Amino acid sequence: MNSIYDAIIVGGGVIGGSIAFQLAKRGKKVLLLEKDRLASKASSAAAGMLGAQAELDADNPLFTLASRSRGMFPALAEELKDISGIDIELVNKGMFKVALSSDQVAELKNMIRVQQGAGLEAEWLSTAEIRKTEPLLSDEIKGAMFIPNDGQVSATRLSLAFTESAAALGVDIKEFVHVSDLVTENGCVTGVVTDIGGFSSENVIVAGGAWSAFLLEKSGIRLDSYPVKGECFSVLTDRPLLEKTIFSHGCYLVPKVGGRIIVGATVKAYTFDQKVSLNGISTLIERATQLLPAIKGTELEKTWAGIRPQTGDGLPYFGEHPACKGLFIATGHYRNGILLSPITGVLIADILERKANPEWSPFRLDRSIQPLFS
Amino acid sequence: MNSIYDAIIVGGGVIGGSIAFQLAKRGKKVLLLEKDRLASKASSAAAGMLGAQAELDADNPLFTLASRSRGMFPALAEELKDISGIDIELVNKGMFKVALSSDQVAELKNMIRVQQGAGLEAEWLSTAEIRKTEPLLSDEIKGAMFIPNDGQVSATRLSLAFTESAAALGVDIKEFVHVSDLVTENGCVTGVVTDIGGFSSENVIVAGGAWSAFLLEKSGIRLDSYPVKGECFSVLTDRPLLEKTIFSHGCYLVPKVGGRIIVGATVKAYTFDQKVSLNGISTLIERATQLLPAIKGTELEKTWAGIRPQTGDGLPYFGEHPACKGLFIATGHYRNGILLSPITGVLIADILERKANPEWSPFRLDRSIQPLFS
Amino acid sequence: MNSIYDAIIVGGGVIGGSIAFQLAKRGKKVLLLEKDRLASKASSAAAGMLGAQAELDADNPLFTLASRSRGMFPALAEELKDISGIDIELVNKGMFKVALSSDQVAELKNMIRVQQGAGLEAEWLSTAEIRKTEPLLSDEIKGAMFIPNDGQVSATRLSLAFTESAAALGVDIKEFVHVSDLVTENGCVTGVVTDIGGFSSENVIVAGGAWSAFLLEKSGIRLDSYPVKGECFSVLTDRPLLEKTIFSHGCYLVPKVGGRIIVGATVKAYTFDQKVSLNGISTLIERATQLLPAIKGTELEKTWAGIRPQTGDGLPYFGEHPACKGLFIATGHYRNGILLSPITGVLIADILERKANPEWSPFRLDRSIQPLFS
Amino acid sequence: MNSIYDAIIVGGGVIGGSIAFQLAKRGKKVLLLEKDRLASKASSAAAGMLGAQAELDADNPLFTLASRSRGMFPALAEELKDISGIDIELVNKGMFKVALSSDQVAELKNMIRVQQGAGLEAEWLSTAEIRKTEPLLSDEIKGAMFIPNDGQVSATRLSLAFTESAAALGVDIKEFVHVSDLVTENGCVTGVVTDIGGFSSENVIVAGGAWSAFLLEKSGIRLDSYPVKGECFSVLTDRPLLEKTIFSHGCYLVPKVGGRIIVGATVKAYTFDQKVSLNGISTLIERATQLLPAIKGTELEKTWAGIRPQTGDGLPYFGEHPACKGLFIATGHYRNGILLSPITGVLIADILERKANPEWSPFRLDRSIQPLFS
Question: Do you know which NCBIfam families this protein is assigned to (chains A, B, C, D) (predicted)?
Answer without folding.
Answer: thiamin_ThiO
